[in-house]
Specification:
The complex is a heterodimer of chains A (about 525) and B (about 525). Chain A has about 525 residues and is of the alpha/beta class. Chain A has 21 helices and 13 strands. Chain A has two domains: about 150 residues, Aspartate Aminotransferase, domain 1 (Alpha-Beta Complex); about 230 residues, 3-Layer(aba) Sandwich (Aspartate Aminotransferase, domain 2), CATH 3.40.640.10. Chain B folds into two domains: about 140 residues, Aspartate Aminotransferase, domain 1, CATH 3.90.1150; about 230 residues, Aspartate Aminotransferase, domain 2 (3-Layer(aba) Sandwich), CATH 3.40.640.10. The chains are: A alpha/beta (about 525), B alpha/beta (about 525).
């Protein structure tokens, strides 16, 4: 934008020639001026306004461009300076003379960590993580630490650890270095997306656990170090930073937003519907997100659902697929708890639906893991099962950041191929789970605490709405605090699971033994009586 | 952007009078583009020009949006809707759409075009085996150490039993392993220094360790790290793919023996600043990969000063710290920070067991940092790359067995040294010299005399010949972002001693075909 300031004055031949070179036709007597904003810049204030207005316009344009270029969180909150820096004086420079040629401007500056790192570090202060930490530092033990914490916040299954450990003690050595396997098979570089033998074994195990016609093709499988990284990888592949996923709430408090930069739009499910997912709510959330200018790339469901424990039935799965096709979005189905359904209701995998009818398979991605189904705590193996070639090849390359160690892979190959063991494990695990589940739910019922009827998972979703003093998130937080610090029981409050109704709590019972249950109930009773007397 | 035309000479003044005193008779007009829109064509131009400007603005904005993801390859076969009628109430608008993956995923999913990965794939598909595949490709591109695997195997067969793996439990593996790892690292790099286990975060390999650090240190995409070239080709993936951090090469040259100079760093830093980017840190590998040189104490001090001066972080990748041979001593950043009271918050060390303990299959890496915030955030992020419990249970006794580790480190060093001597001597017979290196599992070979033309294309031609005629996979300097053509990284630790004559023989074939009269001037500093 060039601004030529021309002041009309009696023509000289020179100025005429000048004008004609620019406009193509020289005016003779009165100038014809057709200029935007002419009225404004004319007159006395002309010089000032004439330069201020273009400047302002340009400034706004620059401002606009700048804002568009900074995706994600704008650094409105500057990274907090480190605590040590705030307290003490800057570290004294004990350097020899020759080295102290440091310019003064730099020497006081603190090395800042990124905005992302700060927000991740802050997560530790949410109730979910506080509770987990407290209960893991000082765990209950009947003999050694009877005043310790009960861990009902961690979705891990200790019911059949004895079976797994017995197997490992008996077979580990052979499966890792035994047989024809040499040291170079476990020590050297292996394909980062998992050994083919393990994929075959996992595919077999998955079909067995899911019990039904669903079959899994090993070449469509990517193995990662844990289901958390599997979900993170998928969301990285399906959405760019700033794009969004619809997630029915309440959902598991673990977070995919940290590194991927994707947004999560909760689709609230309510207690009046038994926390089941409605397509209407999905549709509404989708439209709202679109109005806000967010691009929705997919839905993340967990089936069985994570805090509530209900299963998605066949009809809902069909409607979900229709919804996804209609809006051209992906579905990530987290089926990590598939092995924990009761006999009364059947678990239907999305793969089964896809197999039975001709849907667009490219948009369906399954996440699975062994840590829950096989109570292999700490083994951390996740599975991405996808029909989409692009997703498979991108996530295969991304597994360099989350690959499973070779000894563990060999251990798993022989464990999963041992069909006797697998059958025994699945059967025993289911029996023990049912027993402890019914005992726990009955125990809570005696205290007047009802649970949503859950068909799967290893937790129950307990309704403590009548125990919270103010029906709000604050009241819920207070009750959680009492349970943690007075009763010494760590449960996960609904607000951590993004539940919109206050007063719901997730209690995982698979870290308990049967004789722990009366103790837990007694402890909860203490708190509930105090709450009742107050209200 | 206003253009004021200063009064330079009288002629200029008469043509374009700017001063307000000039307007005596006519209207005073101070209008942008007045000259253009004046006159007969005024109406047309007056509306055309803003339109054109607007068009360009829109065009600009459009180009700066993220590129649209390419259509998925299977777009030809549209989904057929063979559904029962009750379900086929789909709107027609959606049913045709293909599910698209994100643009960042499709850029990752693209096939490899770097010679580094092409060579690695070729060599692993058609691997040389003395008996079964004598015409296979010999792998000199993967920095993996197979010289001392027998020691590991012995240890495992002596000590591994079911109770190690099955017993314990309770989730304490991580803490125990961290203590064991800190002990092992101190043994390798600390000397007088002992590393504090609480400053250590374990990850599943050094690759995620580097990625996590990049996430923690660089906030927004567009932030940059300085990195001395030539560098390890994998950094392009580790650093760039998911974090969006840029790598700014700081070129080191053969005339300086590929050593890092602070002047070059400073220059690169200022250039980046001028371009409006923000430098957040410096990524070093010490011993350097691919050259194999060691940063001296003096250089480390200078680097620390530089980092403090510019207020940036230093990531020091010391994954080869234990694979040192020769007379030069290795100095870890940890040692320097321990001895002097410098600003420790900005230094982060990456380590792993893949090279020094020859256990890349175990996927064990570590971040050692003095910065509380980085430690907290990284620990949270290890949820995505945790080491599995059985592996940790296996490692705890192995790393705690200091007699074994001591013996292993010493034997391993000796074996690398003798392999290095053999390999370099073999290359020398062919007239190929190597930069004198003191660490790592590779040598940096000067084949400038063999390439024609003297540019990247000539280098890739030679690489291609080596791969396809000689069946040897080496890493060309261009894959390591080396600014001078004609350098190659050869990893010799995947070989056994009896393979060396064969490798040299195979290279000789290619060298003879490249028999060029042209002699490159060689600079000093190479091993004679």
């Amino acid at each position: 934008m060039t601004q030529t300031r021309i002041q009309p004055r009696p023509r000289t031949p020179q100025s005429d020639a000048d004008a004609s070179t620019i406009s193509g036709g020289g005016p003779t007597t009165a100038m014809r001026v057709i200029v935007p904003l002419q009225g404004v810049v004319q007159g006395r204030g002309g010089l000032v306004l004439g330069s201020v207005i273009p400047c302002a316009l340009f400034y706004l344009l620059q401002f606009y461009l700048k804002r568009r270029h900074r995706p994600g969180p704008t650094p409105t909150t500057p990274p907090p300076t480190l605590p040590e820096a705030a307290e003490g004086s800057p570290p004294p420079v004990h350097r020899v003379q020759t080295r102290s040629t440091i310019s003064p401007r730099g020497s006081n500056g603190q090395a800042h960590v990124s905005y992302r790192a700060n927000s991740i570090a802050k997560q530790i202060d949410t109730p979910y993580y506080i509770g987990l930490k407290k209960a893991s530092v000082d765990p209950y033990d009947e003999e050694n630490n009877p005043d310790g914490f009960f861990q009902l916040g961690l979705a891990e299954n200790l019911l059949c650890v004895d079976l797994v450990q017995d197997w490992i003690v008996a077979n580990a050595k052979n499966s890792i270095v035994g047989g024809d396997l040499s040291i170079s098979g476990i020590a050297t570089y292996q394909p980062s997306d998992g050994l083919m033998e393990l994929k075959v074994a996992v595919a077999g195990f998955m079909s067995r656990v899911m019990e039904r016609s669903a079959s899994f093709i090993p070449s469509q499988m990517i193995l990662t170090a844990g289901a958390a990284s599997a979900i993170e990888m998928l969301s990285f592949c399906l959405a760019d930073a700033g794009n969004a996923f619809l997630v029915p709430s309440p959902y598991s408090p673990e977070d995919i937003k940290w590194r991927t930069g994707v947004e999560i739009i909760p689709v609230p499910c309510r207690s009046t519907d038994g926390f089941s997912l409605s397509i209407t709510a999905l549709d509404r959330a989708f439209t709202q997100a679109k109005k806000r200018g967010l691009k929705v790339c997919g839905i993340i469901i967990s089936n069985p659902s994570n805090p509530v424990g209900n299963l998605l039935n066949r009809e809902t799965l069909y409607s979900l697929l229709d919804f996804a096709t209609e809006n051209n979005i992906h579905i990530i189905s987290n089926e990590i708890l598939a092995g924990y359904s009761c006999e009364s209701e059947e678990f239907v995998s999305l793969v089964e639906i896809i197999d039975s009818e001709d849907f667009d398979r490219n948009r369906v991605h399954i996440v699975y893991g062994l840590s829950k189904d096989l109570s292999l705590i700490g083994v951390g193996m996740g599975v991405i099962y996808s029909f989409n070639e692009n997703v498979l090849s991108a996530s295969k390359k991304l597994t360099r950041f989350a690959s499973i160690s070779a000894p563990t892979q060999h251990l798993l190959i022989s464990m999963l191929s041992d069909t006797n063991f697998v059958d025994k494990f699945i059967k025993t695990n289911r029996e023990r789970l049912h027993r402890i589940c019914s005992e726990f739910v009955v125990g809570l019922k005696r205290l007047g605490i009802e649970c949503v009827k859950s068909n799967a998972g290893f937790y129950c979703w307990a309704d403590m709405r009548w125990l919270i003093c103010s029906y709000s998130e604050k009241g819920e937080r207070k009750l959680w605090d009492k349970l943690l610090n007075v009763a010494k029981v760590n449960v996960t409050p609904g607000s951590s699971c993004h539940c919109i109704e206050p007063g719901w709590f997730r209690c995982c019972f698979t870290m308990l033994t049967e004789k722990d249950i009366p103790v837990v109930m007694e402890r909860i009773a203490k708190v509930s009586e105090v709450c009742k007397s107050h209200s | 952007m206003t253009q004021t035309s200063p009064l330079r000479d009288p002629e200029d003044e008469t043509r374009r009078p700017v001063s307000p005193t000039g307007g005596r008779t006519g209207m005073r007009l101070i209008v942008p583009l007045q000259g253009v829109v004046q006159g007969r064509g005024g109406l047309i131009l007056g509306s055309l020009i803003p339109c054109a400007l607007f068009y360009f603005l829109q065009f600009y904005l459009k180009r700066h949006r993220s590129p649209p993801p390419p259509a998925s390859p299977s777009s030809s076969n549209l989904p057929e809707l063979a559904r029962t009628s009750s379900r086929s109430n789909l709107t027609s608008r959606g049913s045709m759409g293909q599910a698209r993956v994100s643009s960042r995923a499709s850029s990752i999913a693209k096939p490899n075009d770097s010679p580094y990965y092409i060579g690695l794939d070729r060599a692993s598909e058609d691997a040389y085996d003395e008996l079964e595949n004598p015409n296979g490709v010999i792998q000199l591109g993967l920095s993996e150490n197979r010289l001392s695997l027998d020691l590991i195997e012995q240890w495992l067969s002596r000590n591994l039993n079911g109770s190690i793996l099955g017993g314990g439990g309770g989730g304490f593996e991580y803490e125990w392993n961290r203590d064991a790892m800190a002990g092992f690292m101190s043994q390798i790099m600390g000397r007088a220094v002992s590393l504090n286990p609480s400053q250590l975060v374990l990850t599943s390999g050094a690759t995620p360790a580097i990625e996590i650090l990049c996430f923690c240190l660089a906030a927004d995409p567009g932030h940059a790290f300085l990195i001395p070239t030539p560098y390890y080709p994998g950094f392009d993936r580790d650093v760039r793919w998911r974090t969006g951090v840029e790598l700014i090469p700081v070129h080191c040259r053969s005339s300086d023996n590929f050593t890092l100079s602070i002047t070059a760093l400073d220059q690169a830093y200022n250039q980046v600043r001028k371009r409006g980017q923000k430098v957040r840190g410096l990524l070093l590998s010490n011993p350097s990969n691919p050259v194999g040189s060691i940063l001296t104490r003096e250089t480390l001090y200078n680097l620390l000063d530089f980092a403090r001066d510019k207020n940036i972080h230093i990531i020091s990748d010391e994954i080869f710290a234990g694979s040192i041979y020769g007379s030069e001593e290795f100095v870890s950043m940890a040692e320097i920070l321990d001895s002097e009271d410098v600003d420790r918050n900005r230094v982060h060390i990456v380590y792993g067991l893949s090279k020094d303990l020859s256990l890349p299959g175990f996927r064990v890496g570590a971040i050692y940092s003095w910065n509380e915030h980085v430690l907290t955030a990284s620990k949270q992020l290890t949820r995505f790359c945790s080491i599995s419990a059985p592996t940790q249970r296996l490692l705890i006794p192995m790393l705690s067995d200091t007699r074994f580790t001591q013996e292993y480190i010493e034997t391993n060093r000796k074996r690398i040294q003798s392999m290095y001597d053999l390999f370099v001597a073999g290359l020398e017979q062919l007239g190929i010299k190597c930069v004198k290196s003191s660490g790592g599992l590779y040598c940096w070979a000067d084949m400038r005399e063999l390439i024609r033309p003297y540019n990247e294309k000539g280098e890739l031609d030679l690489w291609d010949k080596l791969l396809n005629i000689a069946k040897i996979n080496v890493t060309p300097g261009s894959a390591c972002h080396c600014i001078e053509p004609g350098w190659f990284r050869c990893c010799f630790t995947t070989l056994s001693k009896k393979d060396i004559p064969l490798v040299i023989e195979r290279i000789r074939k290619v060298v003879e075909t490249c028999n060029l009269p042209l002699k490159m001037p060689t600079s000093g500093g190479f091993q004679s």
